[in-house]
């Protein structure tokens, strides 16, 4: 059984499995590499800020902001996987996101976890 047999991760080229759990059933941790993270800060353009301000007065989903946050989370996760791969990991355990306001209108998103090397249990 390989990581690809397990599901291979979130993208077709995924060679780094990312999970929110402390372990992966059927695998054992051979080596703990350490903390890895992917960080990005994004701001919305003026048009979406005006639209979001108007929408917040009447209620409903702020679709422009939702789209920006999804793209931002994806970029942070891609950077986390790149860092894990560069350090020799084939998995990231205990994956989490942290989101903060870096400044008004800008979101800081940090994806983090523990990079490890896992292998199938015998």
Automatic annotation (TrEMBL):
HAMAP family: UPF0145. Belongs to the UPF0145 family. This is UPF0145 protein QIS96_23565.
């Amino acid at each position: 059984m390989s990581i690809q047999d397990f599901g291979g991760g979130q993208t077709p080229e995924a060679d780094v499995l990312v999970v929110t759990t402390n372990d992966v059933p059927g695998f054992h941790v051979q080596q703990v590499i350490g903390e890895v993270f992917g960080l990005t800060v994004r701001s919305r353009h003026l048009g979406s800020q005006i639209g979001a301000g108007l929408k917040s007065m009447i209620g409903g989903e702020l679709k422009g902001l939702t789209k920006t946050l999804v793209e931002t989370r994806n970029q942070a996760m891609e950077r986390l996987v790149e860092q894990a791969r560069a350090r020799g990991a084939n998995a990231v355990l205990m994956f989490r996101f942290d989101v903060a306001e870096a400044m008004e209108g800008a979101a800081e998103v940090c994806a983090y976890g523990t990079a490890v090397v896992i292998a199938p249990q015998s």
